[in-house]
Amino acid sequence: MGIDLSISWLDKDVASYRDTVTRFVEKEMLPLDEEARRRGHVGLDIWKRAGEVGLLCSDIPDQYGGGGGDFRHEAVFYDAMARRGLTGMSPSVHSIVAHYLLNHGTEEQRQRYLPRMARGELVGAIAMTEPGAGSDLQAVRTRAERHGDRYVISGSKTFITNGFLAGLVLVVAKTDPAQRARGTSILIVETAGAEGYRVGRVMDKIGLKAQDTSELFFDDVEVPAANLLGGQEGRGFYQLMSDLPYERTIIGVMAAAAIEGAYEETLAYVRNRQAFGQPVADFQNTRFRLAEIATIARVARTFVDQCVERLVAGTLDNVTAAMLKLWASEQQGKVIDECLQLHGGYGYMNEYLIARMFVDARVQRIYGGTNEIMKELIARAL
Q1: Domain span at 150
Q2: What is the dihedral of CA 241, 72, 249, 306, to 10 degrees?
Q3: Which residue, 15, 27, 193, 294, shows the most beta carbons closer than 10 Å to its own?
Q4: How, if at all, do strands 124-127 and 168-174 pair?
Q5: What pLDDT shows up at residue 178?
Q6: How far apart (Å, rounded) are the C-alpha atoms in residues 284 and 270?
């Protein structure tokens, strides 16, 4: 009798969709992982195949080419990837970009870009972070100056997920440098043929080796004025802040799934690994550690499921989302560290899933707002 880690929001429709997702992840994505880790990106073909199967933008209305589902359909994709240690493709960032367009874009922008994103023809990225501006987005220095019916974008961005493969980049820029938050806007850049747009190196990270995290450069890149997200200057900071519960719930979903995946992987390992003439699973230290991990996994699943249900219902607040991101990502790091220890020396070898999960987990406490920022947001609400 195993530990019950069942998902509370899996109705018949979502469970059926999950079966489709699981088959795609196992048959299409897993075989590509080693090569993707070597070259630093998954390639565009897998994005197009995911679009053909209907796995991209699954919670975007069908009138814009999406799947017409809700966040639960997105969550099963992130869950399936995270529990198998697959981090190269980032459909989460792709979906966040799609939601900026859905929630804040003009009708023309939605019609123009969302169907192509759902088909995997355009990979989405959002360019926020700069060499001198991380969590403090009001300090961005990238400029977007209006010249007649066009904007000219100048600046550089770093740590951009999906950056190497991106066909559509939402660029956070200053349209009024005299203002802070009120001077920030988001511009839509189609990268194909964009003069002055340049992708720098795929960055050499300690983890997420298959993910194309890149530097982006904008040297007087011209885009039509119609590419201003929402059509109104100075709304960028508001647009960024309004979708944070969605993003932070994604991080929570991935953390809970990674905890469960690491637990299942470790349980199988210690049952098969022999030491001093008996399975490692029979030692009291192993049993007690696994008991703690199983408890954390159950609590994480319960908290994540509650937040998923509240997000679908439209009642998830910023503070609870920050709590989820903070706690789940911290627990992910602790649990996977324990699981690696139970693997012994083999846990330090990249050929083992637990080793890759260990280094991949570290960034969960950084992106989406650092955990220190999460504590500040929570503290302000006390």
Answers
A1: 124-234
A2: 120
A3: 294
A4: parallel
A5: 86
A6: 12
**Residues 115-136: pLDDT tens digits?**
999 999 999 999 999 987 666 6
* 23 and 102 both lie in a single domain: yes
Looking at the structure, tell me whether residues 85 and 29 fall in a common domain. yes
Same structural domain, 254 and 357: yes
In this prediction, residue 97 carries a pLDDT of 98
pLDDT in tens, 195-252: 999 999 899 999 999 999 999 999 999 999 999 999 999 999 999 988 899 999 999 9
Catalytic residues: 247
**250-260 burial by CB neighbour count: b if 16+ within 10 A, else e?**
bbbbbbbbbbb
Give pLDDT, residue 180: 77
- Neighbouring-strand partners of residue 224: 150
Q: What is the pLDDT of residue 179?
A: 84
- Residue 376 corresponds to which amino acid? E
Residue 3, pLDDT above cutoff 70: no
How close are the terminal C-alpha atoms of the chain, in Å?
A: 41
Which CATH number is 45's domain given?
A: 1.10.540.10
Neighbours of 285 (CB within 10 A): 10
DSSP 243: T
Residue (of 182, 85, 199, 171) closest to 138 by Cα position: 182
